[in-house]
Structure formats: C-alpha cells, structure tokens
Amino acid sequence: MDAVRALLPEMQREAARLDADAAFPAAMFAKLRAAGLLTATLPAALGGQGFGEGTEGALALLALFQLLGEGSLPVARLYEAHVNALQLVLRYGPASLADSCARDAAEGALFALWVTDPPAGGLVLDGQKLTGQKAFCSGAGAATRALVTVAAPEGTRMAIVNLDGATILPQKIKLAGMRAAVTGAADFSGMTLPPDAVFGDVGDYLREPVFSAGAWRSAAAALGGLTALVKLHRDTILHRQRERDPHQQARFGQLVMQHETAKLWMRNAALRGCLEDDGNEAITAYINLARLAVEEACLTALTLFQRGLGLQAFLAGGAPERLMRDLATYLRQPAPDETLVKAAEHYFAAPLPR
Ligand SMILES: Cc1cc2nc3c(=O)[nH]c(=O)nc-3n(C[C@H](O)[C@H](O)[C@H](O)COP(=O)(O)OP(=O)(O)OC[C@H]3O[C@@H](n4cnc5c(N)ncnc54)[C@H](O)[C@@H]3O)c2cc1C
Questions:
Q1: Can you tell me the distance from the alpha carbon of 128 to that of 152, in angstroms, rounded to the nearest whole number?
Q2: Do 239 and 217 contact (CB within 8 A), yes or no?
C-alpha cells in the first residue's frame, strides 16, 4: 500500500501522455509488479499477501482499488481484470491451473479478462481448438494471459489462454475515455489449448454470487476516480481563490456528501463481496445497489464539477477534462437497469439490508 501511495503522483503525471497516445501504462505496471501487486490477492500458500481475505484483507483490497483509481482509472481497470481472472481460476479451476497461474503472475504475467463477444464471430471451442474473436479487450497487446469465456459444445466455459498465440486486431472502435486501458479486439482462430486450460463447469462464469458481487471491485476503482475528482475540484477552487463564495461552498459540500456516500456503500459492499457471509441473493442485491449508488454519486459529482470549474473543466488535454472522460466512460458497466430491478425485486421479498 505504501509503495502504491508513493507512486500516485507519477501515475497522475503520466496519465495525460498515456491518454493522448492511447498507450498502455507499461512503466507503471513494471513498478506495480516490483511492488508485488500482481500476486497480492493470492493466498499466502500461493505466494500472495491475502488482499481480499477476511475483514482486514477486504478493506485492504478496497483501499488498494481506491488508491489505484485515484492515481489512474485505466491502471485500476487493468489491475481489476488481473485480480478477477486469478480469483476465478482459484475458485473454479483445478489446483494445477491455480498453481501455474500463480507462478505466471509471480514471474510478471499480467492477466486480462476478455468475456465480451462481438455481435458475430464470437469465441468458439471445438475439442481443444479455438475459432473466433473477443471484443472490448482491455490490455490488448500488453497483457500476456487472458481468461476468456468460450462457447463449447456443452455450453459456456472458461479458459486461460497464453496471448502469444492470439492476434491483436487493429482497434476499430475509439473510446472517448479510458484510452490508456487500450481496449481492442483479439482473434484466437487456429489456437490449440493445452488440456488443462479449459476449466469450470458450464455456467460457472455467470454463477452467483461471484458474477454480480465482483462488481464491487470496479465500483471501488470508480470511487477512487471520484476521490481524484473531489480533490481536483477543491485544489482548483482554492487556486482561483473562489472558496469563500457561498455557491462554491454549497457545491463543494454536496461533492463531499456524494463522495462519503459512495465510500460508505463501498465499505459494506467490499465486506459482503469478500466475506460472502450472507445468502447469494442478499449479497448480489446489496452489491448491485452499491454499484449503482457509486455510479449515481459519480454522475452527480461530474455535474457539480462542471458547474464549479466552468469552462476550465473542458480545456482539452487538461487534467479535469481527462478525468471527466475517464470516469464517465468507466461508469458504463453492463446492464444497469436490470441490476436495479433485480435488487428491487429482492428487497420487496426480503428484509432490508442489515
Ligand atoms: C473502459 C472499458 C473497458 C472494458 N474492458 C473490457 C474487457 O477487458 N473485457 C470485456 O470483456 N469487456 C470489457 N468492457 C466491456 C464491458 O464488460 C461491458 O460490455 C460494457 O461496459 C457494457 O456497457 P454498455 O453501457 O454498453 O452496457 P449495456 O448493458 O448495453 O447498457 C446500455 C444501456 O442499455 C440497457 N440495456 C442493457 N441490456 C438491454 C436490453 N436487453 N434491452 C434493453 N435495454 C438494455 C442498459 O440498462 C443501459 O441503460 C469494457 C468496458 C469499458 C467501458
């Protein structure tokens, strides 16, 4: 944590260049690797530090995502995929695969999580042979391993692929924000997987509570982006000596409220997601709402930020403008309507959150 905190100014400094070039934060990941982050969420038996384990580990992992999100949302997003991929292997994979992934991570492999199929020509597994593509691949061209979902004859399964054998396609889409997460597409046609690469039962990827509860991690990263936004707002207003204006004071008070609301939701969401000490439905309903509460806090904060800073927030290439683009883009997580409705259905039938 101390090592990551020390890297924060550098992460924020280099964000402008990486955004302009849509370039992967390679130098920063080398430093995070050296700080032990790629293995931090593994259990001690596999060389990890237990981030995410028990109450203390859950709060530590929350603090880590928040810190990374404050430094750079693209870095936090890339790291979140790495953590997610390793957790799925540990949960659903055989011990041999968990061992080899832990070894790879210790040797510096960055894992991606590519589960989005393009509208046509998605990833198909026949025997051990892959055909097809994945879309929205963050870390394309930089990550060295990926957890992918594959359409096998028996149903959807997960596989760990060595990305040396995949073709990274030229980016057809250009995202307005999160450009340093280098989100592209990959073609796996012609790759043959080793026998233990495909793992889990049919449907494990979507199995609850893990599938929905995992959203707490990306919400924690977004909370870090919100922290950066609130600090930038405060610094800019102070720099312009506008802090005595009652309208600016009221806006800043509202901003701090939004931030604190998101923080309180996330503390409970991280604990529920990591400890799994409740029924599946109760865990997923709570985390679904937490995710949306953070989204709403961020959207409200973006409006307050724009009103408070005025046109200064829109100077192309400036830190406020980049942060707004990154945060607004990162908030677009799948199926927000369905998430809210499902949580509402749960709380109509079950007790309110304890
Ligand atoms: C920066 C970034 C990096 C990403 N990296 C990866 C990655 O590495 N790997 C990966 O696999 N994916 C990645 N993704 C993609 C991500 O997993 C989701 O696919 C994406 O965020 C979905 O966003 P969306 O707003 O299009 O969602 P949608 O779910 O399409 O939601 C858009 C709107 O449509 C509504 N809606 C959804 N479904 C329906 C429906 N059936 N009928 C009517 N309305 C509907 C929603 O409620 C919402 O209002 C990334 C996305 C971002 C932003």
A1: 10
A2: no
275 is written with which tokens? 């400890």
Atom 36 of ligand 1 has which residue's CA nearest to it? 335
Residue range 247-292, pLDDT digits in tens = 999 999 999 999 999 999 999 999 999 999 999 999 999 999 999 9
Alpha-carbon span 45 to 48, nearest angstrom = 7
* Ligand 1 centre distance from Cα of residue 250 (Å): 34
What is the rounded CA–CA span in Å between residue 105 and residue 86? 9
B/e letters for 132-145, b = 16+ CB within 10 Å, e = fewer, are bbbbbbbbbebbeb
Q: How much is the pTM?
A: 0.97
Query: How far is 258 from 262, CA to CA, in rounded Å?
Result: 6
Q: Which amino acid is present at 4?
A: V
Alpha helices in the chain (DSSP H): 2-21, 26-34, 54-71, 73-92, 95-106, 210-213, 215-239, 246-275, 280-309, 319-330, 336-349
Residue nearest to atom 34 of ligand 1 (CA): 335
Token pair of 172 as six digits: 């057809």
pLDDT more than 70, % of the chain:
100
Domains in the chain (CATH in brackets) are 2-206 (2.40.110.10), 210-349 (1.20.140.10)
